[in-house]
Each structure stands twice: as C-alpha cells, then as structure tokens.
Here is the input.
Amino acid sequence: MNKLGVHAFVWEKGWSQDEAARAIDRSAAVGYDFIEAAALDPSVIDADYTRRRLEQAGLGINFSLGLDFDEDISSGDPEKRARGKAKLENAVRTCRDCGGSIIGGILYSAFGKYTTQPTARGIEESAETLRAVAEMAAQSDITLVLEVVNRYETNICNTAAQGVEMAKLVGAPNVKVHLDVYHMNIEESDIASAIVDTGEHLGYFHTGDSHRGYLGSGSIDLTAVFRALVRAKYRGPITFESFSSRVVGQPLEGILGIWRNLWEDGEDLASHALMYTKAQLKAAEEAERQARERSRLPLGRG
Ligand code: MN
Here is the structure.
C-alpha cells in the first residue's frame, strides 16, 4: 500500500514551533502517514523539535523546495550554482535531522517563470550538481525526486518524459521522478500513459485537482490517474497538495498565483482527500484484478 501524505500548506504557511506542532498533530489526527513540509528556506526549520513532535504523533515527513533565481544551478553562473548547491545540501541535512527520506520539488532549476530557453550546458551543470548532492543524500538514505512542473514554474522539466531524461542524466540510484497531476493536466498529451511510461523512474506523486482545491471537485479524470498508478505498479508515497489564499503567504502565493480562496477548513479538505484517495486506490486495484485475473475463460477447470 502506498504511504499517503498531506502538504503542510493545508494547515499552516510557516514552520515555527507552533505551526509545526499544529500541522503535524492535525495530519496525524486525520490519519495520514506523513506530512510534506516546504523547505524553501531550510534554515528556519528546527529539526530537533520537528523530529520530536513527529515521533510523538507517529508521523513521517518528506520535504519539498524550489530554488530561487539567484541560486539557479541551471543558470550557467558559477556563483548562483554554488548557492543552489549549498541550499540543496542544507535541505539534505534538515531532512536527515528530521528523520525524513525524500526531498522533492524543483531541485534542478529556479522555481518561477523563465523568459528564455534552457541551455544544454545549464542542464548538464544542473545534473552534475544534483549528482554530487545525491551522493551526499545517499549517506543518509535520502532520495531526491525531481518534480515535473508546468511551463510557468520552470523551463526544464515540463513533461514526465523530460523528467525521466533528467533523472537518467543525473544517473544516481537515489534520484527519481516526482509527478504532480495538477502540472500534468497542463502539459501532458495523455496523463495516464505518461504515468505508466515513467514506470520504475517514478519516486513520488502529488495528487490535487485542476484548480488545486478539493480533490475530485475539478476537471481532472482522477479515476484514470489512480488506475495508471496501479498499472505502473507504483508503491511509493502519494501526497495531497492543495493551496488556498486562506493559508498560503508570500513568496509561494505570488509564484503559484494563489489568488482565490478555494477552501476554508483544512481539516475537512484533508479528511475528504484521504478518503477519496483510499477509495480511488482500492477501486483501481480491483479494476486491475478484474482486467487481469478475473476475466479469463474457464479453461483447465475440468
Ligand atoms: Mn506539486
């Protein structure tokens, strides 16, 4: 069974001790296996406190982040690249100290709207930097997952196929692809085939809907998405990610364009998403068995 998680922004926009405690306790009370915390600035995370609260609540943790433009490891600028590498290494230390095992997000470029094409040299330097960070992460059993996002948030990995190419270019066993159905809905020609084709490279998955509000209340064919995850034999973590102006503050609000209030009650949103995800996964598993095991001619039964 996939471990199910919820993004911290369903609860809180920051990670002060009070915010962390509330986000952790609420995620555990709703019944999630782990929380995904934003490490846009890993230095503000109190790792000892976080780890203690997680242990008390019996909850796991993963992290996600994106690089700023002045720390863009794909920019071709050695100073920006050095700052980006330092931030990624800092995130690895934070993740290790909190007891986490996965860091996802836009680790390979800046997180924002580019106005120019990426360069081959920039992509190669990004992969080379990630290879070094991955080696450090491997010492703490941490996997880096490269999130494929829409064209307004990076100029490198916009499709699952590009994510697989990038992961192969990095070429480390602990570097995998992170897919997010919200972004796939914008960029992929066929979401289900993109998931199946990513196959064994898939290491992390974000669910959500077309408007990033209540799961199932948008226009994405989520039944097809969950069936594709089961068909791809994906057993990794699945995190529900949703943003409302009710919680998100700057800079994320501005980068992601969170202008509307899509929900008020994080607990209602998160409980519903957990029920919905479990029901969809169960239905998708039964659909797969129906197709592969239960629909055979009665031959060889005497
Ligand atoms: Mn995402």
